[in-house]
Amino acid sequence: MWAACFSIVMWIGGCAHLTGKHTTQTTRHGQWRVPPNIVICPNGPVDQQRVEQAVAFWQDLGYEFGSVRQITGYYEACVTSDVYKIPFNTIVIDIPDQSFSFGEHAAITRTGRRTNTDVIVMAKIEMLSRDATEHVLEHELGHALGFSDINLDGHLMHFSRTGLGTNTTGLLQTTEITP
Predict the structure, then answer these.
(1) Is residue 168 part of a domain?
(2) Is residue 173 part of a domain?
(3) What domain range is 137 assigned to?
(4) pTM of the model
(5) Does residue 3 sit within a domain?
(6) What is the CATH number of the domain that holds 82?
C-alpha cells in the first residue's frame, strides 16, 4: 500500500500590497486539477445568477468549473473561520469574518494548495455585497484560480478596485496540470 505525504498551505490572494511588490505580468500560483464546484453561503454577498455570470467570464477564457449552488441550510465551511473545513475541489463564497480588514480590501481570497504539486484544492472568497460590483467577483475568482494581483491599469487582476478593468492579457487557459 502506498502512502502519500503532503500538506496543504493557505495562500492569500490579493495581498501583494503587503510586500509592496506589484508586477505588470500575470503570475499564477497553482492550478486546479479538477474543475472546482462553487458554493455560495446562505448569507453570501452574491446570488447564484451573479456567480454564474462571473463563471461565464472565466469560461470564455478557457477555464472549467463544476456546479454552482446556493446553500440554504447549514454548511460547515460557511459557519467557521477554519478554512480547512472547506471541502476539496470547492470554492466557497461568503461574507467576511471578523478578521477582515474593511478599510483595505473590497474582498479577500484564500486558496489551499498541495505543497508537493502546487495543485489548488480549495478556496474561500470573502466579500461584502456592496463590493460585488462588476469585475470584483471576477477578480476574486482569478485569485481562486491562482492568479496574483498586478500593477496594470485596466487589467482584471489590478491590485486596486479603482484600477480594475476588462483587460485579460495573460489570463487565457493554455496549460493543463497532469496528475
Answers:
(1) no
(2) no
(3) 8-20+27-163
(4) 0.84
(5) no
(6) 3.40.390
| Dist CA 151 CA 144 (whole Å) | 19
- 53-111: pLDDT as tens digits: 999 999 999 999 999 999 999 998 888 777 778 999 999 999 887 676 666 667 889 88
* H-helix or E-strand spanning residue 47: none
The per-residue pLDDT for range 141-150, each reduced to its tens digit, is 999 999 999 9
Number of domains the chain contains:
1
Q: Which residues of 57-90 are buried (b: 16+ CB within 10 A; e: fewer)?
A: bbeeeebebeebebbeeebebbeeeebeebeeeb
- Distance between CA atoms of residues 151 and 101, nearest Å: 21
Q: Is residue 176 part of a domain?
A: no
